[in-house]
Amino acid sequence: MPPSAAEYTVVRNYVDWILDLPWNDLKQIDINLDKAREILDGDHYGLEKPKERILEYLAVQKLSHGLKGPILCLVGPPGVGKTSLAKSVARATGRDFVRLSLGGVRDEAEIRGHRRTYVGALPGKIIQSLKRVKFNNPLFCLDEVDKMTSDYRGDPASALLEVLDPEQNNTFMDHYLDLEYDLSKIFFITTANSLHSIPVPLLDRMEIIELNSYLETEKRHIARRFCYRASARSTASRRATSACRTTPSSRLSAPTRARPGVRNLEREIAALCRKTAIKLVEDDNTEKCVSISRQSLPALLGVKKYRHDERETEPQVGVCAGLAYNQRGGEILLVETSLMAGSGQVVTTGQLGEVMTESAKAALSYVRSRAEVLGLDTRFHRKVDIHVHVPAGATPKDGPSAGITLATSITSALLGIPVRNDVAMTGEISLRGRVLPIGGLREKLLAARRSGIKKVIMPHDNEKDLKEVPDEVLRDLEIVFVDHVDEVLPQALAATAEEIFSGRATAQPICRTLRPEKHEDDKNQPAQ
Hints:
Blueprint: H1 8-20, H2 33-43, H3 48-64, E1 71-75, H4 82-93, E2 97-101, H5 109-112, H6 125-133, E3 139-143, H7 156-163, E4 172-173, E5 180-181, E6 187-192, H8 200-203, E7 206-210, H9 216-235, H10 238-244, H11 253-256, H12 263-283, H13 297-301, E8 316-317, E9 319-326, E10 329-341, E11 346-349, H14 354-369, E12 384-389, H15 403-415, E13 418-419, E14 423-425, E15 428-429, E16 435-436, H16 441-450, E17 455-459, H17 471-474, E18 478-482, H18 485-492, H19 497-500
Parallel strand pairs: 1-6, 1-7, 2-3, 3-6, 9-14, 11-12, 14-17, 17-18
Antiparallel strand pairs: 4-5, 8-13, 9-10, 10-12, 15-16
Helix pairs in contact: 2-3, 2-4, 9-10, 9-12, 10-12, 14-15, 15-18
């Protein structure tokens, strides 16, 4: 074909891509479990179960001389080491590391490529990455797989179904190449913060390995072993970093404890190093040692940043502490209930999702069904307006695990009995008052411990999940298992069970102090 032909450039680019791809070029892989364990332990502190599962996966690869089994998916809050763990696995196996960020990807062509009929067509990111590394068996880290979206250009999650299926990816068809390409030699690892937004067919092709939030003791070890070294390289001042190392890392837990990962911890340590470097430069004395104490931390790092992760200082009526779990880890969630004279309206605020709003309605229905036992007027809902608010800024909140928290808060407001400020709870509620199991228990208990909670009320069906919680956390908490909301109220309210369920807990329940209202059924009743 002459160079002046209209199709010359298109065909030439296509042929160049075909010839440049590593169709059969494989890098020598040497799997040594002792070396792999040493690398994983040297790069990451803790994460024992994820590292053990990865070593099992590598052992199977060594025995089978190939990649057998599902794709690994590392799931956990931000900053716990998902991407760096994938990078360590690549180093432990001698594979080239390729990272492909899927956050915000909404075009199917990013995965499968464009057809050659389009101007400027190119293969997908996977084929492009293989051309760059020049080997057909790298470790591919598909980062933020839960952040993909879809629009009129296609669904990239559907395009990944073939890529991540061990039974199909040996005949992967890229639209640009229009040839079958073997991806079965690639070691795929995906990462995600949450599983809720991952399509079920794609999730079915992956094996989930959870990376949990770090304990305070683990953060201290990470600060000593890793963060200070990184700060030394970033500040280029050995003396400044040596001065910073005199500060016990436990004192840095206050500004970073609301974060499940260690990124914020790294920022705080780097800030201390920079502050120390300024003092050394201004004093023109690089041999000087700068001491940092607990009292000097506010001046160096600023005022305390996290207040919402702490419990109430004293018992409050209608204020109950719940335990929540989101992409950032576990946290304390206060539920407030206020009563006003009205006509029975129920208002929920605090950016509550649909599921949590339904939990509030179910909690109120349970309280109404137990009105006589609690000593309430059976028609109290016609006399009062109930306002349920969940503070914590503009963060959306959803999920069913706040059911017993909502029921306790509403009951406390109606009876006028304070809720103990050292008690937190989690559990879904049914209309019959049954307490149903929940998820994210480890992170929730971590949040309760660091917030000073002494007693945690949780569903009895979650007792088996305590095996995943470190003994260090359980030592400081009293765990109470319940099957029914009637068991929750005596544990949470500042009153005995006999007082609560006999109507004698308070002389004048709030709903009785409102102006009485004539009921329709009472109009025809004779005066007594």
